[in-house]
Write a structure and sequence with these properties.
158 residues, alpha+beta, 7-stranded antiparallel β-sheet, 4 helices, globular
């Protein structure tokens, strides 16, 4: 399933980049997304900045057909590989589960406003219900990104 979500930040790209590199911002996002617990780590691999967000989400509200595959809690690992100030390769997994999300994050500045676009392909390799679970993941991801956008709005207004 193809997934696209755009967030608009009332700040130049340099400020948005600094925000995305701030561990305190990442911690605020993890909390706003309703995580039971989570961490954000930052590293460098050559010229690439690597951000890994590892969080545990409750499976509350997930339909029964999906819950039997994920259990009561969902461990989500998001890896961003920032190869440029305006581009990251994105890979999201649920360790031990048959699915992933692979895509990118793009930042574009126009007249002091930065647009952040997340594009990805969500795949769940489970016969019969894979498509339903992909749609569910897309809906959950959109909700998580809306929470992130609100945190970004608050963060950038300080």
């Amino acid at each position: 399933m193809r997934f696209t979500h755009t967030m608009t930040h009332a700040a130049p790209m340099a400020e948005v980049g600094a925000m995305l590199d701030d561990p305190a911002y990442r911690d605020e996002v993890i909390a706003a997304q309703g995580s039971l617990r989570g961490t954000a780590s930052f590293g460098q691999e050559g010229d690439t900045v690597v951000v890994v967000v590892d969080q545990l989400q409750p499976a509350d509200g997930i339909p029964g057909f999906a819950k039997k595959f994920v259990g009561d809690e969902i461990n989500i690992v998001q890896r961003e590989e920032w190869t440029a100030v305006d581009h990251a390769d994105l890979h999201v997994t649920i360790p031990g589960k048959p699915g992933q999300m692979i895509g990118s994050i793009e930042l574009v500045e126009d007249d002091g406003t930065t647009t952040e676009t997340v594009e990805a392909e969500i795949t769940v390799n489970i016969p019969l219900v894979g498509g339903k679970i992909e749609k569910l993941i897309g809906d959950l991801l959109r909700k998580a990104l809306c929470a992130e956008e609100q945190v970004a709005r608050d963060y950038l207004s300080r």
